[in-house]
Amino acid sequence: MPQPNPTSNRSFIIALALAVVGLIGAQIGMYLAYRYAPTQISTGSLFVVAPDPGVSSFNLYESYRIFFTHLPSAYTTAVCCGLMLLGGVMWLLMRKPFWDHLTVAAAEVGLVAGALTLLTGAIWAKYSWGTYWNWEPRLTTMLVLWLAFAALIALRAALPPGQKRGILTAVYGILASPLYPLVHWAVEIGSGSHPKSFSYLLTAPEITVTKNVATWGIIPLFVAIVFVRLMWRNVNHALEVERAA
């Protein structure tokens, strides 16, 4: 009779706790985004400074509310990069399937979070700047990071199980993980339409509270999905081992 796996049990408890916290936090965050955060009704009233030197402030009205989804999604890609780095390093040191599965699960969720970041950013850019996309540094590096997540998943799917696949997955995860810091600092590479930061644009205290609640709600929800994908891969691996025996 199969014995319970303590690692799987811990993963389930962590996933459940994160999902509960995330669902509650995300709901509260979205409520605050539409019921508590103010609407800009006078030009420049929510700005610390104009979005770009020499450009006069303009009304955001309701459009900035998309930031409460955009920012947590972007932060989630950072968390996924960190988990890929952790998984890759630990697999090379310990060669345990758990760490290999964590690397891939983080890439899968990072792919979704990155897509949501790009999509919400494009929607806001269309309203604010009149175009969905331009090739400025931060947008381009975010697209490169998203493609890196996709490439890791595709590379792994193309390789047969074994040490070679594990090594390539780990090394790729380690090499791809510094891309988020590059995204974060890319705005300093050259001038562009992307704001330097959320607080650079908006200063109302209600907005800060809402941003923090939404961030600490949505990120745990995404991390819970990482653990669900991790458990799914662990189960599949156990079944493969059993079939091979």
Whole-number average pLDDT?
83
Helix and strand pattern: HHHHHHHH
Question: What would the CATH topology be?
Answer: Four Helix Bundle (Hemerythrin (Met), subunit A)
**Regarding CATH, which class?**
Mainly Alpha
Low-confidence segments, ≥5 residues, pLDDT <50?
A: 47-51
What gyration radius follows from the Cα positions, in whole Å? Answer: 20 Å
Proportion of β residues? under 5%
Tally the helices: what do you get? 8
Largest β-sheet summary:
none
CATH architecture: Up-down Bundle
Q: How many discrete structural domains?
A: 1
How does this model look, in words?
The structure is a single chain. The chain is mostly helical. It has one domain (8-244): Four Helix Bundle (Hemerythrin (Met), subunit A), CATH 1.20.120. It has 8 helices and no strands. It has helices at residues 6-35, 67-94, 97-129, 137-158, 163-176, 179-185, 198-201, 205-244. Helix 2 (67-94) packs parallel to helix 8 (205-244), helix 3 (97-129) packs parallel to helix 5 (163-176) and helix 4 (137-158) packs antiparallel against helix 5 (163-176).
Core attributes:
globular, 73% helix, 245 residues, 0% strand, mainly alpha, Four Helix Bundle (Hemerythrin (Met), subunit A)
Blueprint of the fold:
Layout: H1 6-35, H2 67-94, H3 97-129, H4 137-158, H5 163-176, H6 179-185, H7 198-201, H8 205-244
Helix pairs in contact: 1-8, 2-3, 2-5, 2-8, 3-4, 3-5, 3-8, 4-5, 4-6
Offer a quick outline of the entry.
The protein has 245 residues and is an all-alpha fold. It has eight helices and no strands.
